Structure formats: structure tokens, C-alpha cells
Amino acid sequence: MSETYYTTAQKVSDYTKGKIAVSDVKTEWLTWADDYIDRYTGLKFGADISFTDKLDGNDLDWIFTKHFPLLSITTLKVGGTEVDSANFKWYPTGKIVLLYSTFVENYQNVEVTGTYGYAAIPKLVEQIATMLTAGTALAAKEANMNVKSKRIGDYSVAYFGADENRVQDQLKILGKRNSLEGA
Question: Which residue in 138, 166, 170, 180 is a FRET match for 127, CA 20 to 30 A apart?
């Protein structure tokens, strides 16, 4: 089974107008672009990703998971007791609603297990991954002195020419679309 990445070698080749051949694109560059986007946004954009969230009860009949969009909820426990699936509803946004009770207020007394993800990689994520991988591939191929390097924590990235601002703009848009901060 082959791994799925946010972009493909063919898309990188097309983006560079053939300067980078499909066979020149290394899987570690695709992996790096995926990891960079995941760390920047705090999200993963694959399909059927398993999760278990431990959440604080809020004395309300609804709560939000840390992961979204939800694809399934396998188990919901409140105070260690499993809630029957007929007694709650869940929504792709990560919202879970208890039909006949509330999430008792307490520290991490709610446990949600399930899957989340995207049926298809969002186009913006695909575009950013393509741009990041293309910049890396072009830098590796041409070893051009016009490449500008950046380091963010343990990650370093080389942007090729004018695409640096475009990549940063796209990442900001992606972060704003998917941020839970201030929502």
C-alpha cells in the first residue's frame, strides 16, 4: 500500500513547468512538506485518522472535540461510563450533543474515540505542499545561490525566488481557515 501525500510528484513537475522530472521528486520532500503544514496548522489533512480526546466536562449538553472534521465516533465515555450511541449526536465540526443529560463538569472526565479527516486533500493544502516541494526540488537541482533559507524551530526550509511570499501568504490563509483560536 502506498502512502498518500498532500501533493504528488506529477503536480510538482507540472508546477515547475517540467524543470523537475517526476522521477526527481523524493518521497522525503513530500513527507517534509506534509509535516511542515501539519505543524504550522496544528491539523492533519489525511483521511480516517484515529484519535482519542480527553476533554473537560462543562456542565452543558454539548462539547467539541479537538479533532475535526469528524468521520466517526467509536466510543464516548463520561466519567468512565460509556454513553450509548442512541443517546448522543455528533457533527463533522467536532460538536457532540448529549440528548438526555449534560457533560458533568470535571477535569478530563470525557473521553471521545473515533476518526477524523478529509475525503480529499483540500486544494489549498495541496497547493502549499506542491509549492514547498517544488522549491525544495528546484533548490536541490540547481543549487542556486538565490535560494533563501529560513529556520523555524527544528525545521528549515528553502524557498525559491518569488514563491517565498506566496507560500507564506497561503499558509496564513490556511491557518486562519482552520484555526480554533478566536473562533
Answer: 180
Model pLDDT for residues 35-55, shown as the tens digit of each residue? 999 888 888 888 889 999 999
CB 134 within 8 A of CB 15: yes
Q: Per-residue pLDDT tens for 137-169? A: 988 887 644 445 555 556 555 555 445 666 777
Return the ∠ at Cα 155 (arms to 4 and 32), rounded to 5°: 15
Cβ atoms of 124 and 178 within 8 Å: the answer is no
Kindly state the cell numbers that stand for 174: 490556511
Phi, psi at 27, each rounded to 5°: -60, -30
Listed residue (89, 94, 103) closest to 70, CA to CA: 94
Q: Nearest-CA neighbor of 45 among 54, 63, 33? A: 33
**pTM of the predicted model, to two decimals?**
0.65
CA 129 – CA 110 distance, rounded (Å): 35
Order of all β-strands in the sheet with 95-98 = 62-64, 95-98, 88-90
Q: How far, in whole angstroms, is CA 59 from its chain's centroid? A: 30
Torsion of Cα atoms, 104 then 106 then 108 then 114, to 10°: 10
